[in-house]
């Protein structure tokens, strides 16, 4: 009898332990279920009612679509997202239908593990056209976005009305021997396109902005470093693509027939004015506007001048169409 009671007690203890283990696992699952949406919610905390999502080639693409009139599509730089156009969208949307989106691999869009290259973003831009039923549009592209805009104009000329290229670095093949006056880099700084430390981010921003006090502060560095993590994988694949000289625009730009405005920051430490001058030579009939006291982000540092120049450039086309 005593042995039987001891056996039952042992069974009860095992049952309690088993029950406690199950409850612990359930509690952990509940905590994870709460935590995961919280992370996602935090990433989207700055979204507004303008933010939307569409699906391109099976990937979720984050975008905004505001205003009405002729369509203008804004294409962000490598490492950026549609928020880079926060100082420009509202102004342009007063006269135009403005579409801006996080390219695949960036911002709040999906990030498949693929070998990203400029042609990838060209393909997804075409997908956005299709999904939003856009027949033609003017393209405004910053840095890598400018390269994508030019590449798209070459591949689909019937879909592009006008072209604006802002500090469109890396459209040309990277030379074997770096000349900082002609290309903007010395060996070793290419890694700053995808900073992996706060120190590297500080160096990257120092090259990108003229107003160091505002845009290279500790707070700005922390914010930029956190934001860069969202697109780090795609950025690294793009760097490898640059090195392989994939989709470069050398000897192709003569095929662009659309009216083209090239905008450059005079103090751009990433891509010096000499590159803008080269684009102006290679694209027939293009015009170069150099903005003083400005680095790689004219649409941010000198937003009023940038907005005025782009609005005038686009309005000139509308005026000629009406006349």
Task: Provide tags for this entry.
8-stranded mixed β-sheet; 323 residues; Rossmann fold; alpha/beta; 11 helices; single chain; 15% strand
CATH architecture: 3-Layer(aba) Sandwich
CATH class: Alpha Beta
Beta-strand content: 5-15%
Kindly provide the radius of gyration, computed on alpha-carbon positions and rounded to a whole number of angstroms: 25 Å
Mean pLDDT: 84
User: What class do helices, strands and sheet pairing give?
Assistant: alpha/beta
- Discrete helix count: 11
> Distance between the terminal alpha carbons, to the nearest Å?
108 Å
Number of domains: 1
Strand order of the largest sheet: 1-2-4-3-5-6-7-8
